[in-house]
C-alpha cells in the first residue's frame, strides 16, 4: 500500500494515470505530453508499474503502457479524476486518441 501512496503523491504520475485511463500509450507518446526529460518519465513509469497501477508490454520495438484496471487504487483514482478539473482535459484527450485508433482499424 505504501508504494501506491508514493506513486499517487506525484502530479506527473497522476497525469500519466489520467492519460492511460482511456487508451494504452507508448513511453514516447506519454513523454510527448510532458515538459520533462524522457529519463524522468521512465522513472515515473517505473514507480507506477512497481506499485501495480500500470503494466507494460513490449510490442516490437515499443513498450506500451496500460492501466491495471483491477487495482482498487485505480478505481478510486478514476472516481476522484471525475471530480478533478486537471484530469478532465487529459481524460478527454485520451478518449479522442482511443476513438481515432479505433476508427483507423475499422
UniProtKB/TrEMBL annotation:
Keywords: DNA-binding, Transcription, Transcription regulation. SUPFAM superfamilies: Winged helix' DNA-binding domain (SSF46785). The keyword Transcription regulation applies. The keyword Transcription applies. Residues 1-87 form the HTH arsR-type domain. It comes from the Bacteria. PANTHER family: TRANSCRIPTIONAL REGULATOR, ARSR FAMILY (PTHR33154), TRANSCRIPTIONAL REPRESSOR SDPR (PTHR33154:SF33). This is Metalloregulator ArsR/SmtB family transcription factor. It comes from Sphingoaurantiacus capsulatus.
Amino acid at each position: 500500500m505504501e508504494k501506491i501512496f508514493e506513486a499517487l503523491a506525484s502530479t506527473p504520475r497522476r497525469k500519466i494515470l489520467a492519460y492511460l485511463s482511456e487508451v494504452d500509450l507508448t513511453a514516447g507518446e506519454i513523454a510527448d505530453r510532458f515538459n520533462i526529460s524522457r529519463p524522468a518519465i521512465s522513472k515515473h513509469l517505473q514507480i507506477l508499474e512497481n506499485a501495480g497501477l500500470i503494466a507494460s508490454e513490449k510490442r516490437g520495438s515499443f513498450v506500451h503502457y496500460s492501466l491495471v484496471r483491477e487495482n482498487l487504487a485505480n478505481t478510486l483514482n478514476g472516481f476522484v479524476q471525475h471530480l478533478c478539473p486537471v484530469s478532465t482535459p487529459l481524460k478527454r484527450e485520451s478518449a479522442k486518441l482511443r476513438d481515432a485508433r479505433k476508427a483507423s482499424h475499422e
